[in-house]
Amino acid sequence: MTDKEPGVKESMVCDCYKCELKDLFYRNITDIALDSICERKFETIFRKGESIISEGDEILHFSYLKSGLAKIFRLSQNKEQIIAITRPMDFIGILGILTSKTYNYSVMALEDSVTCNMDIELVRNICQTNNNFTFSLFEKVSHIYDKIVIEGIKIRQKHLRGRVSYILLMFANEIYFSNKFELPLTRKEIAEFIGMTTENVIRVFSEFRKDGLIRISGKTIEILDKNRMDNISNFG
Amino acid sequence: MTDKEPGVKESMVCDCYKCELKDLFYRNITDIALDSICERKFETIFRKGESIISEGDEILHFSYLKSGLAKIFRLSQNKEQIIAITRPMDFIGILGILTSKTYNYSVMALEDSVTCNMDIELVRNICQTNNNFTFSLFEKVSHIYDKIVIEGIKIRQKHLRGRVSYILLMFANEIYFSNKFELPLTRKEIAEFIGMTTENVIRVFSEFRKDGLIRISGKTIEILDKNRMDNISNFG
DNA sequence: CGCGGCTTTGATGTTCATCAAGTAAAGTGG
DNA sequence: CCACTTTACTTGATGAACATCAAAGCCGCG
User: Fold this and answer.
1) B158-235, which class in CATH?
2) What are the residues of chain A with a beta carbon less than 8 Å away from any beta carbon of chain B?
3) What are the structural domain ranges in chain A?
4) What's the CATH superfamily of B8-143?
5) Which of B217, B193, B93 is nearest to B145 (CA)?
6) How does pLDDT run along chain B (236 residues), one tens digit per residue?
């Protein structure tokens, strides 16, 4: 997060002692260490569409998403490839936050978002002296990676209809906790996530609509027949 | 590694103080801790084709591949999906070695192989008390994961010819360090690695042979025109 | 209001999986 | 060690799944 980034610093920050990440931090860190992080942390606001991280940027902060939604992606062969959707309380930049000098991925806000940023050197110092902390972090990062790898395998084994229903169910079940939601991704981005073309994403949407599986109104999607969607996701 | 596994314990084990993993262990661990691991470690021999780990097995040891070659794979929808090829000095089981109770992946020997196995509880104890060690391990595991994710993305963006040349170059450049080598995978396994059918792997092999790119004799492959192979791998 | 990006649909062609059928190689039991 | 079985390899023919191309409507934004 360098100066030229569009993110805006926010003055209303929350109390670290009440942070939802306390499982990771509060439990494993002394009050003194926590205080030293807290007084230097800051929050940043990103509007929908703004870049949070660009591949190659120097890593200066240990950041997590406080609210909103973001996509993690890589540029490969002039094509964006979306690797994962980052939800609140997820770390930003995942890999190499501690071990690399620069980011390996780009991150962009899909909705208005707020990140909380801590000095990376301070966090590295805590790692040097507090292995409970390091271990917890290790555990969390491992699970994130594992999910990415396994999800990638599962998605690619499916046909187009299966991929689309998989991602729609993901939004409904894991992100918005509702059968009706606003798609945070364009059709093109969905295509970049699940490895198909924009046109075919739209075509499958239309098929699902004609089959009475979903209702579409612009970016608003409502899943009407979850059972059949589950079947298509699992066996399509 | 339970009793029913085919691996055979080996009595001739090497000196931990001269272990190639000393960067990870020796540098970060006291002699006493190292000694306590060493006297309880053991090595296991696996013949080509034998199972080293099965998905769901309880994790009892922290193991690495001392010699040989192995494939890491998952069973998904009755299909094997090869995730990575493990080379000497790579860890076995990667994810969750420290944090999970059971393995998330299966591992099978592709060549006669030897693993070195340490008591997982002992290693976990070291993690509890030695954060240099934990940090080094964290770093190594992160890089392994990163490579898997990026490699997966790259392979799937290519057409069939590009995928096949990519994997052949991988064997030549990163595993056997020679343009002529014995393929450790069957055609079917190659297909499972790069997401295509067995028939098409064979078809592309035949095309490459007719185009004078490679010479094939059973499992022996020789890359004749590396420049053109590089091009196909990068732009195919 | 007009421009560019997003969305939609149809027509067309290519890539690739599937099916079939046969050969070679490798393991198995008498 | 040889007949037998199984697994791996190979090639061709066919069709399905999917990408690409083309054209037009829509929507937000300067």
Assistant:
1) mainly alpha
2) 74, 76-77, 79, 81, 83, 95-96, 98-99, 104, 127-132, 134-135, 137-139, 141-143, 145-146, 148-150, 152-154, 156-157, 195
3) 8-147, 158-235
4) Jelly Rolls (2.60.120.10)
5) B93
6) 433 445 666 545 677 777 777 667 666 677 777 777 778 889 999 999 999 999 899 999 999 999 999 999 998 777 899 999 999 988 887 766 777 889 888 999 999 999 999 888 888 888 887 878 888 888 888 888 889 999 999 999 999 999 999 999 999 999 999 999 999 999 999 999 999 999 999 999 999 999 999 999 989 999 999 999 999 999 88
Instruction: Name the residue facing B76 among A95, A127, A157 (closest C-beta).
Output: A157
Bridge partner list, A180 = A222
Q: Which amino acid is at A188?
A: K
State how far the alpha carbon of A168 is from the alpha carbons of A107, A180, A186, A213, B192, in Å.
Answer: 21, 10, 13, 11, 27
CB contact set of B8 (below 8 Å; sequence gap of 6+): B44, B45, B46
Phi-psi region of B192 (alpha: psi -120 to 50; beta: other; left: phi over 0): alpha
Q: Is any atom of strand C within 7 angstroms of residue A182's beta carbon?
A: no
B145, B154, B159, B234: best to mutate for the A interface, most A CBs within 10 A: B145
Distance B210 CA to C23 C1' (A): 20
Inter-chain CB proximity B76 and A134 less than 8 Å: no
Question: How many Å separate Cα A232 from the centre of its chain?
Answer: 25
For a pLDDT cut of 70, what percent of chain A falls above it? 90
**Considering the entire predicted model, what is its pTM?**
0.90
Q: A8-147 architecture in CATH?
A: Sandwich (2.60)
Residue with tokens 């509007």: A47
